[in-house]
Each structure stands twice: as structure tokens, then as C-alpha cells.
Amino acid sequence: MLTIKIAGTQSWDPQKAEFRYGEPVELRLEHSLLSLANWESKWHIPFLSNVGNLTAQQQMDYIRCMTVTKGVDPEVYRRLTREQMNAINIYMDDPMTATWFRGEPKPNEPRNGKTVKQKPRPRRGGTETTAEVLYYQMFQLGIPKECEKWHLNRLLTLLRVGQEANNPPRKMSKAEAMAQQRMLNEQRKAKLHTRG
Q1: How far apart (Å, rounded) are the C-alpha atoms in residues 160 and 103?
Q2: Burial call 92-114: b when 16+ CB within 10 Å, e when fewer
Q3: What's the farthest any 2 CA atoms get from each other in the chain?
Q4: Is 71 left (phi over 0), alpha (psi -120 to 50) or beta?
Q5: Which long-range contacts (CB under 8 A, 24 or more apart) does 98-102 make?
Q6: Residue 62, CA distances (Å) to 66, 75, 119, 157 in order
Q7: CA angle in degrees (0–180, nearest 5) for 106-110-113
């Protein structure tokens, strides 16, 4: 969960000839499957495959969907500073796990100043990855519904771990099989003290 403190407002009331002060607001945000589902139910487009193409209004609405704090005035979101928006983006990009996959950078390794957004791989039937697809994958793997409130990147990693664990083992290539056979022959020769 990310907590953002938004400063209070100050405005001039010309009729009373005095300043009016608005209270500061604390936003608690969760980038989760639940937020994603709420956003997609409003906009009717897949969020994950369109992250780079969202309008400013759609981006701001996703932040509203991430908000856990109750009763937030919609005007508050207009007061978000550039630094706060950067903090939200960093939070959304955080892997939130120590798990990594072969051929990809580890979560604690620097990424050359660029954020590497892991896009979920398209499903076999060509279906875009949407909240419903992720819920289906969760239930198929026996992941409880409570995990819908986890950080989305952590949940995507868990889904990928579950899918890879369920995949049949990769078949050895001929070269790998021959190398393994050579190694076993060398071990047997050494154990039996023979030359071949």
C-alpha cells in the first residue's frame, strides 16, 4: 500500500475578505487486481495491454480506483504533484517480490534507469489479459480470492510461477542428452576404474 499526503488548499473569499483553508488529505492506494477490475468495468478496455496509451483522464481514474481511503473528494486528485505521480508510478512498477525468471533481471538489480514493464503474455486463444482472465487463472491454480488485494505485480508473479509449475518439463535436446550420457559414462568409468 502506498500512502500519499496531499497538502490542504488555500483560497481567497472576496465576499468575506478572508482566506479559506482546506484540510490536507491522506490517500491510501493499492495497485491490485481489485483496482484493475473496477477500472476495466468502467472503461471496457484491457488495462494491462494499454498502459502506455491511456488518456490523462483514464490514468487519473485508475488512481481513483486504486484509492482505499473512503469519501475522497474528486477534486483532491487534481492537486497531485508531479513528485506524487512519480511516486505512484514507481509503486506500480515495483515487483514486490524476490522471485525472478531465467533471462530476466532480478528484482533487486538495477534496470539501467529504465522501468521494465513486464507485459503479461497473451493467452493461447488470443484473449487479452483482463481482470476476468486473471481471476480465472487464480481460481484455476487454487489461489484464494483474498489475493485480489495483493500488489498486482506480486499476483502476476504468483500466477506465472503456478503456470510454469504446471507445465510439463522441457524435453532435452539431442546435444543435452548426449552430454548427459557422456557425463554418466565418465562417472561409471571413474567408479569402476575402467577405460571404457
Answers
A1: 14
A2: beebbbeeeeeeeeeeeeeeeee
A3: 104
A4: left
A5: 99/157, 99/161, 101/160, 101/164
A6: 6, 15, 18, 21
A7: 135
Grid coordinates standing for 149? 488485494
pLDDT of residue 66: 97
On whether the CB atoms of residues 145 and 138 are closer than 8 A, the answer is yes
- Evaluate whether 143 touches 163 at the Cβ level (below 8 Å): no
Q: Cα(9)–Cα(21) distance, rounded to whole angstroms?
A: 5
* C-alpha grid cell, residue 144: 484464494
Expressed in angstroms, the distance from the first to the final Cα of the chain is 63
What's the pLDDT tens digit per position in 146-161? 999 999 999 999 999 9
The pLDDT mean for the chain works out to: 87
Burial class (CB in 10 A: 0-12, 13-18, 19+), 150: buried
The half-sphere exposure of 77 on its side-chain side, counting CA atoms within 13 A, is 20
